Structures are given as structure tokens and as C-alpha cells.
Amino acid sequence: MMREGHEEEEMMMMVARKPAWLEGLTAETFFASCGIHESRRKSEKNVFCLLCCLSVCPHCLTSHRSHPLLQVRRYVYHDVIRQSDLEKLIDCSYIQPYTINGAKVIFINQRPQSRAKVSSNVCFTCDRILQEPFHFCSLSCKVDYLLYQGDDLSSFLYRIDESDFTFSNLRMDGHDQLGEISTMEEDTDDIMVMSHQWEQGNNSKEKTKKKKASNYSPGLVLSLGSRRKGAPHRSPFS
Predict the structure, then answer these.
(1) Which Pfam families does the entry link to (predicted)?
(2) pTM over 0.85, yes/no
(3) In this structure, are residues 138 and 111 in contact, taking their beta carbons and an 8 Å threshold?
(4) Burial of 85 (0-12, 13-18, 19+ CB in 10 A)
(5) 3-class state of residue 141 by DSSP
């Protein structure tokens, strides 16, 4: 009971340190039918209002037309955001992007894993297998890890430029449902992961953006998933 109480307190502290839009984005349910417009066609909630911190459907947009709006897409029953959109809000370094139908996307939350695998490079939070040089499989995994480590999220957040998230930038033409594959488990075979191009792009961005230095080293860090399971701390010198 004491352990459960400690975990609840820890989660409340983590939530309190997230900005409202980030907490709303990672907790919101997308692609559910809008309660106000459920009788109308295309009433799935696939847009996130960064000002109101909630998901809305295309028919709700008239009430949010002047607000900064972020489009969410669906891929194999999981929510994704274009990397080009997300990296305007938060430092996306070390989050593994996927190229789907020619677009680089990032998963909002971690996904269930059907079977255990062994790899030298896994997500620091949920232990999902990743390709080098990435350390997180989703936005929420990186955010949770940073908060667990006691990092200040403000060092990773960017000021929202509303001109980047205008109503006119949205694509409400049915392209929010990305092409599917048979399974998400075979990441290395079924999805192209940007590695060399990603590194080149990040190197150029680091010259123009001030980012907090991160000491992400697979040999020195124990994943958050393992820590929550009560695994003993491994010394980097052992």
C-alpha cells in the first residue's frame, strides 16, 4: 500500500510539471466520435487545440479557428504526429521517428508489446527495441523519462508560434489515416527509420537552437521500465 501511494504521488508530481498542452496531448483520446457532432459525417476528433488543450473534430473547428491547432493522424490504431510539427513544440531528439507514406511521424504514446525481445538498444522507458541512435519510442516515453530523472522540461520546450499551427495549415481531406502494415512489432523490417538523414538534420538544427545537453548513454543509464520493476541499479563501472 505504501508503495502504491508513493507511485501515485510520484505520478502527480510528474503531471504537475508538464505544461497543460503537453499533458492534454498525451492523455487525450483521439479519433473517437465527437459528442456534439456524432450524427454528422467525419466527426472523429483528430485535431488538438493547443490553447484549449482538448481534441476536436472538423465540425468544431469554427469555434477554434483563431487558436493554434495541431493535427493528429492515425497509424495502425495508434496516434502519431508529423515530426515537422512536433519539433516546433518540443525537442524531439532521440525519439525514434518512422517514415510512413513518405512522412516522418512520431508516436504520441508508447504501444503495447506482444512478446519479449532481446536487444542492446531499447527505449529507456518501456524497453521497446529501437534502432541506433534513438533512446525513446514515443513522445510520452521521453517526457516521462526526463521527469523521472528530475530534468526541467522547460529546457526542452519551445515557445508556440501560432503562425505554425493555423487553421489554414490543417489537411482535412482524409489523409489523417496513414497506410497500415500487418504488424507494428517488426519495426526494422516493415518501417523505414530515418537514421543518417535524421542525424544530418539534427546537426544543422543544433546550430540554431539552444538545447540542453543530454548525457544519454546506453552504458550508463538504466531504463525507466526496469527501474519501475524494482531492478537493482547497475554501476557503469562494474
Answers:
(1) PLATZ
(2) no
(3) yes
(4) middle
(5) helix
